[in-house]
Amino acid sequence: MGKAEKTRQFIIEKTAPVFNTKGFWGTSLQDLTDVTGLTKGSIYGNFKNKDEVAVAVLEYNLDKVRAIITEAISEKKSYRDKLMCYPDLYENFALHDFPSGGCPILNTAIEADDTHPILKEIARKALLYWKDTLIYLINKGKEKGEFKSDTDTEENALAIIALIEGSRMMIKLTGNLNHNHAIMNTLRKLILAL
């Protein structure tokens, strides 16, 4: 990596928690300079504007979540155990290197749905990728005889996502981790029933 690429990566890594916690509109240029220790000129020397930083940060945070989940799934042999990685990881969100501020898909979807079409599109694609990954895992489990042949793959993939994202939203609003525990137990039951 050259100096410019290192500086860009530094800015992305340092501002990722700020954007994911405060959101696009809540993050100011002052926040970016405070967290990086760089001047406004240094930041804008590496990115055209705040939008470009936000896009890079969202992609960085999404890649971080995908890497954690992919690594956990790759360590499991059965497709049921691969799906069980989701409640296990999301129940212990804080113990893993998940992005500060919660789920970047949920955070972006809530803030950017009507205000920032580029961020919304990135979050939409990430959500669809997640759904497709779950559909793949469920279909492979059906092929291997681990899941019932009449299991509705899309319906269950959507339910898994809804339970996880609903849990994230409830934690953010209430601060009550017991809700997360209860919802992740419901998710485990859903996976066991496939």
Automatic annotation (TrEMBL):
Domain HTH tetR-type: 5-65
Lineage, broadest ranks: Bacteria, Pseudomonadati, Bacteroidota, Flavobacteriia, Flavobacteriales
Protein's name according to its UniProt entry: TetR/AcrR family transcriptional regulator
Short name of any one Pfam family annotated for the protein: TetR_C_13
Keywords: DNA-binding, Transcription, Transcription regulation
Origin superkingdom: Bacteria
InterPro entries in UniProt: Homeodomain-like_sf, HTH_TetR, Tet_transcr_reg_TetR-rel_C_sf, TetR_C
DNA-binding stretch(es), residue numbering of this chain: 28-47
PROSITE patterns: HTH_TETR_2
